[in-house]
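Weekly puzzle thread! Below is a chain. First person to post its structure in token form gets bragging rights.
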Amino acid sequence: MSGEPAFFELGVEDAGRARTFYGALFGWSFGPGPSGGDGAVIRTPTVPGGLHAGDPAASPALFFRVDDLDAATATVRRLGGTVEGSSDPDPDPDLDLGVEPSPEDGRETDIAHGRFAMCRDDQGSPFGLVEPPRGHRAAPHGDVTPAAGPSVDVDVVTLERAGWEALSTGPAEATAFYDAVLAATAVMLLPGGLVLTDRAQVIASMSGPPWSSHRLSDVTVLEPAPGTALVHYAARATRGDVEYAALCASLYVRQHGTWRLVSHQQTPG
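Winning reply:
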């Protein structure tokens, strides 16, 4: 039993708005959730998370890693706590830590992202336990080649991924994200010889139909000078029957403690 924070869950009313808000605030990126629908996996530089909709004003839930969920839940009970699963003789129906219940287990669930259990300690405070899937290995960078300092490559890559996630969600989410992350002076060099230097035009250009899917690969980050970061990668995306591939490069500058996007270029290929 290790006990380090391993996962968190956010419950919100509208998942799309939450992706835009937290993507712009923290640079988080998002992937499809294990249960589909509006749920999402949250990618952060450290502890991963989950997002579910239809739960307005919910408090964030924190899950602690254990090596053996069955042994850990038995220990919880032995110490006077409770486990909010079907095997609990008196489950608390008001406890909601944001994990979709399984038909077989009540509030204990086994999915590809690990096994989860909802618990309360001996004073009634809620918490979660998670047993990672067999062979689990944390990899916050994905396929990133960290040519820059560790905090630099994590921050700008999560921002870049969050931008593509917003572009794959909807026009409102995309324009809100780039309005939050774009520097006051910026330039975009887009396919077809399109050059955008007006900030309002850049933001408006993000209001097109969302991508159906996208994938970034061969991501590399360079730090040309302190406070600057260049992230370049190959992107593949689809929109209906249309497939798009390009080599992309984004330049970020740190302004007042926050990374701002000052330049982005796409070269189809």
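Puzzle host: Confirmed. Bonus trivia for everyone else. DSSP finds five helices and 16 strands in the chain.
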